[in-house]
Protein: GTP cyclohydrolase 1 type 2 homolog
Organism: Phytomonospora endophytica
Amino acid sequence: MTTPVNGIVVAEITAALDALYPQETAESWDRVGLVLGRPERPVRRALLVVDCVPATIAEAVAADAQMIIAHHPLLLRGVSSVAPTDYKGRAVHDLIEAGIALYVAHTNADVADPGVSDALARRLELENLRPLHPTAPGASTGIGRVGNLRGVMTLAEFTAYAADRLPETVWGVRAAGDPNRTVITVAVSGGAGDSYLADATAAGADVYLTADLRHHPASEHLAGDGPALVDAAHWATERPWLDLVAAALGADLGLDTIVSDVVTDPWTLHAARTGLER
């Protein structure tokens, strides 16, 4: 944590985040920016999370944080009520009653330079980064990143390496492709990334690491001689970005930040076949 600085208010943090992740770069369907909190309210400490859920709200309360900065929107779709009779309504009430502001940077953080996929690429120590799906030709912004490993690995070695470098989850890391395939050029995209399988192929990647890969798109991609695939937990591919945000806010504002390591990946059990008959 950095040393707290008196006098920082919600509006200053919002302005700093908007400069890093301009709201106009978010997808049209997305809902980003300040969600809750009076702009003039002071903030001594902020909690950085992937998901604003009951567990991370409780973490913010216990840490005496006055603001949560989240990646995923709490209110992505329109609502006609925030009555505390459902999960999201209760979350809104809990935040307001605890005096905690909420700010979201989602797809605008995905395309930023540096953004979500830069942080993921840095965890893997990739070099010579470029966008996987640039926002415009020649731009440094865009979805995903493509880079090179510092040395050559097999797919099996890279899968184990990724599992060691990413935050641990029950989901873990799984791969599709020849275990002995040579891996040098790596494409990554934090979060759900099977919309960019063709981009990974076009980029000349040996492997594409992302999350939430679906059966049919993955199968068809591999049948078409696309790069090998590594599928990690959604939360694990986006958690590294929180460190990047914390460093930026500490440098820009001297804000006291806590990065949440509460695993909000929904999967809590993983079993392999034991071979035992029941």
User: Anything to note?
Assistant: DSSP finds ten helices and eleven strands in the chain. The longest strand covers residues 142-154.
